[in-house]
Structures are given as structure tokens and as C-alpha cells.
Amino acid sequence: MSSTSLKFLVYGCAAAMAVASSLPSSNSNATRAAVKEFPECTSLYQRKSWTAMTNTEKKAYIDAELCLMNKAPKLGVAGSQNLWDDMMYAHIYQANVIHNDGPFLPWHRLYMRVHEVYLQTECGYGGGQPYWNELEDAEAGFLNQSTVFDAETGFGSFKNGDNGCVADGPFVNLTMHLNQTSSDANFCLTRDLDQDSFYQANSTYVNECMVIDTYVDSWNCWGTAPHLAGHMGVGGTMLDVVSSPGDPLFFLHHTNLDRLWWEWQSVNLTARLNEIGGPVVASDAFLTMSNLDYPGADLLDYNGENGGNVTTMAHNLWTAGLLPNVTIADLMDIRGPISCAIYV
């Protein structure tokens, strides 16, 4: 078995036990009122490539991330000790309905905005959510030379210390408390670079997705090579399909994937702002491979699909009450009042 194939299995199987049955369920009802509202969109936030940001801008972003990790939680989830844990919970709890399915791209678009709003409103960050242009690094050659791993101006290196945790950078002391099996997990940030897997972020793989005409035919393409390249390339925490948002690089990675989806949409906005599809729930094969339970009524009864398994514009997207629920239709255009962004 190739290294890439093995890493794919690790990524898929990282959820070692059922998600919904093992985490605290105080926020499980997807109709729960949100603890914060979307801010008014008065001007579009510019989402820049990490390499296009000044060191001052990079520091402001990193400082805001550290702020989330040290600010009191809002959701009332057992075991959550800060807003970073809250942010992770929104992904952990519903991992079985936001991967390998039609809502995958829209839900993660919303999740990037939720993260961005919390950086801005809770931690005083004045910029937009940056992205990691992984294609550039994949084609430049050596992943370990990427500026995102700079210990002074980036996210810390890929080198782990004797305790298995990242050895330098701003997140060297990060402790996370929630995972797929426990509300008292207490684990650190790890990385384990895989150059071969990261090559799948290059233009060959991206272009294969770009030339597909319809969302129904393209969602799985985006969810494989361009998506998995970042997770498998960085490794460690990013390999966990459930808890991968614990690595702050997750948000740059998924903002880049959203940028690629927006680039694809922009080829034909008339059609592609109104086009969605794919299954509501991933295949039994994927759920089994990932050791994820089939989602229960606490999620499916509130998704707006009335029991169907085809994703529609009316699909309800939930982020555990961090911000109000929205439909897929609400955020198809990133320039709209929900995302309030533009990629530059």
C-alpha cells in the first residue's frame, strides 16, 4: 500500500468511536439559539494569501488565534475550556454530516466565516480570514520550506519535541480538551509532514476539478485531492477527520479550498450560485471506514431536507449555536451578507 493510500485510511479512520454518542449533548439540538449574531456586512473583508500579508498583519492574526484559545467559552459544552474548544466542538459533534457529502463545501464555507467573525468580534482582529495557497507550495517543491511553518511569523514548525507536541512557534503550549471520544481529552498539537501527499495540491489535481461542469459531479473531486492534500501533507492533528480544526492551519487550509470553490463558481455565476447537490449523508462505506455512526434525529430532523438524501438550497447548516443557522442558499455568494468577503 502506498504512503498516500495509508494516510488516507488514517485520515478516514481517525474517528475511532461514534461521535454523537460520546460527546456532551447539551447543544445537540440543531434548533438551539445562537450565542452571537452575524455582524452587519458594511464592506467586504479581503481574504489574502498568507504570503501576501505583512509580518504585522500575520502577527495580528496569530494574536487573535491565541486570544480565542484563552477566552472563556460560550456554548456551555461540558469540558470546553475556551472559545477554541467551542470552535472545535461545532466540527466534532457533526463530523458524520459534513464530510464526503453535498453539504461539505457549504458547511465549511460557513465554518470559515464563523471563525472569522469570532476573531473579529471577540479578539479585535481587523482583517479577513487568510488562506494558504497550497498550490504554490506544492509546485515550489519542499513543503518543509513553506513560510506557514515559520516559528516567528507563522504557525510553528512541523518538528515535534520529545513529548510528541510541536516544538516551537506560537502554539507550542496549545492544549485541546475535546475530541471524538472524550470531553476531557487534554491533547497537544502535532504535525508529521508528508511531501508526497501534499503534491496533490498542485495544479494538475486542481485543474481536474476546475473543468468539471456541475456541482453534482465536482463536489467529490474537491473533497479528495485538493482537500486531502492539506490534511495528509501536514499530518498529525490535521489527519484526524473529527478534531483537525485543533490545528490553526486547518482554517487557512479550508479557506483555500473555499477560495478554489469560489473560483470554480465564478466561471459561471448565473448557474453556479444556484447549483447544489450530492447526498445529505455520506455513503455507508465512508461512515464505516471512518468509524462514524449514521447521524441521528438530533441532526437530520433539522436539516431542512424532510428526510431526503439529496442536498438542496434549503439545507440547514448548524454551527452549534456559535452563530445562527443559515441555509446553503444564504451563503452561495461569498460577497453576500453572511460571508461578506472577497478573495484577493
Automatic annotation (TrEMBL):
* GO molecular function terms listed in the Swiss-Prot or TrEMBL record: metal ion binding; oxidoreductase activity
* Organism of this sequence: Colletotrichum nymphaeae SA-01
Please report a single Pfam family linked to this protein.
Tyrosinase
Q: Which domain of life is it from?
A: Eukaryota
Name assigned to this protein: Tyrosinase copper-binding domain-containing protein
What InterPro entries does UniProt report for this protein, alphabetically?
Answer: Di-copper_centre_dom_sf (IPR008922), Tyrosinase/Hemocyanin (IPR050316), Tyrosinase_Cu-bd (IPR002227)
Keywords in UniProt for this one? Copper, Metal-binding, Signal
Q: Which residues form the Tyrosinase copper-binding domain?
A: 99-116, 247-258
Signal peptide residue numbers: 1-20
Q: Which Gene3D superfamilies match?
A: Di-copper center containing domain from catechol oxidase
